[in-house]
From TrEMBL, chains A, B:
Limits of the Amidase domain: 49-397
Family: Belongs to the amidase family.
InterPro entries noted in UniProt: Amidase, Amidase_dom, AS_sf
Leader sequence segment: none
Cross-referenced Pfam families: Amidase
Coiled coil location: none
Entry protein name: Amidase
Organism domain of life: Bacteria
Gene3D superfamilies per record: Amidase signature (AS) domain
Annotated GO MF terms: catalytic activity
């Protein structure tokens, strides 16, 4: 994989020009994307900036994020050839930091669960996960050092785990969702994929102009609360093993680790996530559903069909639960710095029929808290399995620091 | 003006067909819009539904709200001829309720303060206010019974006050802002204009499928807290007179009325509103500002130029103040049902150079609470002056009921 932080260091030291760095990514995409299929379209003559912290960094943009210079097709024939007028704010943030938009990456239709044709670079017989399939795969395959995805249930953390890359779903609205095709305005969150946690920190800091996100040289040993989310069912053996190994590594590296039970209201929030998501999806996709129903792929169409009866009262009740759960969750962080849990039930499922299960992700999206995927171990078939590090709302720096601690602890195990 | 509730009653009773109701509006627009200039474009052959609570209701849509069948130009040459692919969710909500989209109404560029050429139907020498200029004017002139606007500072309540129509800025996100050109994602709120408060209630209830918003036959006398927002400066004499008259009317009609001081943190929230608004606007309009700066009109361009230095830390501090103020404000509603305050400093300013001052509105947009404009009296020159009735977040039904109480009390005065 291409390390963003490493590229930056070499560019800063004039060991590598921004043009050469971009040319490397272009070549890597040329070489690999015929097999992997991570890109929907690519910039024909990518512009290279000579200033900005992300000069020389080629970025893939999930194809539900609007771009003025490349089509934005939402993974759906309904938007074939659609050309937005403007770049989404988050794309402008990248450009302002000097990044080069390399192309648009594959997405499941409207970021739901109908799979794309993208392969998992670690094992071509398995899904890369979704909905940010192309972004995870392009970083995992070493094509580009940075990619944007979005998460409404588990669409950033899950594909990152399946592809063995680092990823952050930042605090809700740290990255604006304006110009990003909406599925659920309460849940949709823009996130980043990169080779390692340090790369995420450098990328997020540059995009947001937030120096506090840059990693310190020294990492404090965090107080970790391990949560197993029993309300979401048991993990597969590989998922359990990833959490066991990560916990062991963190403990050996000096972290304080203890198991934590989540309050009942938080479990209740996990249960109502679909109500909130689908009620808003019926509004967000009303035009598509009413005027192009037959062009909506089967899994999304079925979900919308099943949930047409949701009422404002159901939605209001779900929002009240979410608000109470956010308060209860915040109190847990008085005693621990971060939570540690599964990124997915196990390794990437076989075949391309499913993008996997977001049941261990959706709660954290609803809570709006920052989550970082850290690859924890490699299961049979070369398939990576990840864990997620979760911090208090707004403490993205803390989530990244603790994730780097876990990542380094795993490397030393 | 055309009363929505009255049209509904006549259509329900088969005294009027939906087609005839729409034809009336089309004729009224034909007759008046050459003078007023409330519409940017009109539906050539407006579709009339035969079912739904809003069948026969012609609606004007502010031209920053995306429509699939009419251009959406954002009040700016940058978007000349822009054709969105989809209808915004709130447009689909209208269509699902049976409403007919009559056309797109004028908006200041990107809903900021550079004026449109729309005239105030009450006095052509005065501004109709902004940024939802066309929506307020079209309802005031009796062209249409319902129009959509948006408010980030005071863009719904202020033009409603200046044009002498009822309007509601509902609780934040009651109406989705997806597909609405963003200025500030924390503030932008979709609202409605109609002839009277009952018409607003019928309209909002039908759009949202929320029966609890429909007016009851009996109205309880509310406990009213009168707030003068001294931190925002003194009103003009006409604004003060409107509040005095509305207070007197409410008291005579049996309401419990007392003056209330707002907590210091709420005043502080008023002060930081521009920080929050402009920090987000720099992101929301980054593409326009960076690639089409010269085409941005002078007042907006100057505001963006002045605020380029805002930092994430300024923004975070502003958000913390807003959160604390929301909690403090919620406590006030333990003792009163609604607040009553100025809708604008006074009557509509003379000429078209300014859309007026949102200083008595912006706090309530930031607080996310429902606000209803009620025309309170007519000043010299036939210029209406309004007051706003404000309820707790989520209590839109209570805001509408108390506003109807004040409206009826004023009629009996």
């Amino acid at each position: 994989m291409i390390s963003l932080a490493d590229l930056q260091r070499r560019i800063d030291a004039n060991e590598l020009s921004p043009d050469a760095a971009i040319a490397q990514s272009v070549e890597a995409v040329d070489a690999q994307d015929k097999t992997i299929g991570a890109f929907v379209c690519r910039a024909e003559d990518p512009r290279v900036a000579n200033s900005g912290p992300l000069r020389g960094i080629a970025v893939g943009i999930k194809d539900i994020i609007e771009t003025s210079e490349l089509p934005t097709e939402m993974g759906s024939s309904i938007y074939r050839g659609f050309r937005p007028r403007a770049d989404a704010p988050v794309v402008m943030m990248l450009k302002r930091a000097g990044a080069t938009i390399a192309g648009k990456t594959t997405t499941t239709a409207f970021a739901f669960v109908d799979p794309t044709a993208t392969l998992n670079p670690r094992n071509h017989g398995h899904t890369p996960g979704g909905s940010s399939s192309g972004s995870a795969a392009a970083v995992a395959a070493g094509m580009i050092p940075l990619a944007l995805g979005t998460q409404t249930g588990g669409s950033v953390i899950r594909p990152a785990a399946f592809c063995g890359v680092a990823a952050i779903k930042p605090s809700f609205r740290m990255l604006p969702t304006v110009g990003v095709k909406c599925y659920s305005w309460t849940l949709d969150t823009v996130g980043l994929f990169a080779a390692g946690v340090k790369d995420l920190a450098h990328g997020l800091s540059a995009i947001t102009s937030r120096p506090e996100l840059m990693p310190d040289a020294a990492i404090a040993a965090p107080r970790i609360g391990v949560v197993t989310q029993d309300f979401a069912g048991a993990p597969e053996p590989a998922g359990g093993e990833a959490l066991r190994i990560a916990t062991l590594a963190a403990e050996r590296a000096g972290a304080t680790v203890r198991e934590l039970a989540l309050p009942d209201i938080v479990a209740e929030a996990w249960r109502i996530h679909p109500t909130l998501q689908e009620y808003e999806a019926h509004h967000a996709l009303a035009w598509e559903y009413r005027t192009h129903r037959d062009a909506i792929p089967p899994l999304l169409r079925a979900r919308l069909d099943e949930t047409t009866g949701l009422l404002p009262a159901d939605y209001d009740a779900a929002r009240r639960v979410a608000n109470r759960a956010r308060k209860a969750l915040a109190q847990l962080f008085d005693d621990v710095d971060v939570l540690l849990t599964f990124s997915a039930p196990g390794a990437a499922p076989k075949g391309l029929a499913s993008t996997g299960d977001p049941r261990f992700n959706r709660l954290w999206t609803l809570m709006g808290v920052p989550c970082v995927n850290v690859p924890a171990y490699v299961a049979d078939g070369g398939l990576p399995v990840g864990v997620q590090v979760i911090a208090r709302f707004g403490n993205d720096a803390g989530a990244l620091e603790a994730a780097r601690f876990v990542e380094e602890a795993l490397a030393r195990l």
